[in-house]
């Protein structure tokens, strides 16, 4: 078993899992809200340009939420396989303060 995983009590693991699940749920809600707004294509060229810009922004935000969900799900898999809390690049423990702020973090502050 991974040394970092051994330091997590069952209560800590469940607390982290709960944080990750809530974060994923919130990201899914935000993603759903972004897809609801359809811009109006009526009006002049300026209005249509504004509508196109709004649509592009919605697409970027939706993609950002999808990436957030993927990172959260990846962290949950790491929690399951015992590698949670260890940097994917240098294999050193990730500072617990970083994990408190971003429980989906998979790298330490020093790694890209």
Q: What would you say this structure looks like, in words?
A:
The chain is mostly helical. Helix content is 64%, strand content 0%. It has four helices and no strands. The two termini are 26 Å apart. The mean pLDDT is 82.
List keywords for this structure.
4 helices, single chain, mainly alpha, 112 residues, elongated, 64% helix
In short:
The protein has 112 residues and is an all-alpha fold. It is built from four helices and no strands.
Q: What pattern of helices and strands is seen along the backbone?
A: HHHH
Helix content: 55-70%
Task: Tell the overall outline.
Answer: elongated
Q: Pairing-aware structural class of the strands and helices?
A: mainly alpha
- In terms of DSSP E residues, the strand content is under 5%
Mean of all residue-level pLDDT scores:
82
Low-confidence region ranges? none
How many strands?
0
Largest sheet: none
* Count of helical stretches: 4
Radius of gyration: 19 Å
Terminal Cα separation, in Å? 26 Å
Please write out the topology.
Layout: H1 3-6, H2 10-34, H3 45-81, H4 96-101
Helix pairs in contact: 2-3
């Amino acid at each position: 078993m991974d040394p970092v995983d051994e330091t997590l009590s069952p209560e800590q693991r469940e607390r982290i899992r709960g944080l990750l699940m809530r974060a994923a749920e919130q990201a899914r809600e935000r993603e759903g809200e972004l897809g609801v707004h359809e811009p109006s294509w009526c009006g002049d060229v300026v209005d249509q340009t504004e509508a196109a810009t709004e649509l592009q922004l919605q697409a970027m935000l939706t993609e950002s939420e999808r990436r957030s969900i993927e990172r959260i799900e990846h962290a949950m898999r790491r929690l399951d396989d015992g590698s949670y809390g260890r940097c994917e690049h240098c294999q050193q423990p990730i500072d617990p303060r970083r994990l408190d702020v971003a429980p989906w973090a998979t790298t330490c502050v020093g790694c890209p």
